[in-house]
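Researcher: Re-running this chain for the archive, since the previous output was lost when a drive failed. Same request as before.
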Amino acid sequence: MAAKRLSEYDEIVASHGKGLLTRYRTSFARYGHVSLTASCIAYSLYSIAHALSQRH
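Model: Regenerated structure tokens:
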């Protein structure tokens, strides 16, 4: 879901500017490009760690 939000964020900023973000999705007021990118990286690392821990 974080990747979807990052994609929406980037697309809206590129096409309409930051002013439209919070009108489109109010949660965009709480985070930005950096935090969305960081959450994508964190979820990716978690997924890899989880997959590796399941290997016996």
